[in-house]
Amino acid sequence: MAQIARSLSRALGLNEDLAEAVAMGHDLGHAPFGHAGEKALNAVVPGGFSHQAQSLRIVDVLAWGGRGLNLTRDVRDGIVKHSKGLGPVFARGADSPATFEGQAVRVADIIAYLAHDMDDALEAGFLSISDIPVDILAAFGDSSESRENAMVKDLLRSTRMLPTGPGFAFSTSMEASMASLRSFMMEKVYRSPSIAREMDEGAAAVRAIYASLMADAELAEEIPLKHLPRTREEAARDFIAGMTDRFALKFLEKIRSGSSRPATVRWRRSPNPPVCRPVRSPSRSNASSAVCPTGSSRDTETPPSARLNGHVCP
């Protein structure tokens, strides 16, 4: 998605770096199991939960070992206003990002998921090519690359440069085709019974982890960044929101089995962050090393708030 946002910004004479910064931060706050996990947290956390607000909390407070990042107002605005859900692609009024780069990220997000989610569904066996309506294939082709190219090219052809900047738009026919593709994916994939069952199980896992962290003070000690001034409810929210699906399931499995809890990674702080080196816990001698900004491996054992999705080490 970041590459689409950069490409749109380059073609329209916008600030590519700003667009990429917004794109890189826009989904940091997603809970495990996507929107199902988000709804589960929203139902149990005092004050509710939204991934937009959590993304902003990560960059403002949790990143860099709880010191936060010194991001500009425009980057922060783009992060918190990126989400469209099932609403219109082009936001208006207070929901619209303040910058054209933020608007480019918003539209790049929908292009990316419409282009690539179908490939994921085909690969997972939820769809076959024969299931895809002929009009959708005619408009977008049969690959993620052709779908992405069709939408990007139409957007650039249809966008008009106004005195204040680009007036983002798709052609009438492309808007109709995108609406058809969106509806098709919603019916056949996003709301399919098999996906719904998995998401229900994921939401139940999120609720169970939160309840366990609230009930067990010893378990709550696993939550990183203990020096931050926050309630246990806030700490549990931050911890769970940083989990991957796999980490959440493994964490819940260990809670239920009563086995030794996941090791907390201790970090030697460098005077020049973000260089960092994890120290293995004696009880988990085979634990993998955590992700640092210079690395590319993913570690499902390290507490997620320490990994921060591979972007920042505390």
Quantity of strands, as a count: 4
Described by its quaternary structure, the protein is single chain
Q: Structural class of the secondary structure composition?
A: mainly alpha
**Measured distance between first and last alpha carbons:** 26 Å
CATH-defined fold name of the domain at 2-26 and 82-191: Hypothetical protein af1432
- Overall CATH class of the domain at 2-26 and 82-191: Mainly Alpha
CATH-defined architecture of the domain at 2-26 and 82-191: Orthogonal Bundle
Mean pLDDT: 82
* Model regions low in confidence, pLDDT < 50 over at least 5 residues: 263-314
Number of helices: 14
Coarse shape: flat
Strand order of the largest sheet: 1-2
Cα-atom radius of gyration: 21 Å
CATH homologous superfamily assignment of the domain at 2-26 and 82-191? Hypothetical protein af1432
Largest sheet: 2 strands, antiparallel
Structural topology:
Layout: H1 2-11, H2 16-25, H3 34-44, H4 51-66, H5 73-80, H6 100-124, H7 134-140, H8 144-158, E1 160-162, E2 165-167, H9 172-190, H10 193-215, H11 217-220, H12 232-241, H13 245-257, E3 266-268, E4 277-279, H14 304-307
Helix pairs in contact: 1-2, 1-6, 2-5, 2-6, 3-10, 5-6, 6-8, 6-9, 7-9, 10-12, 10-13
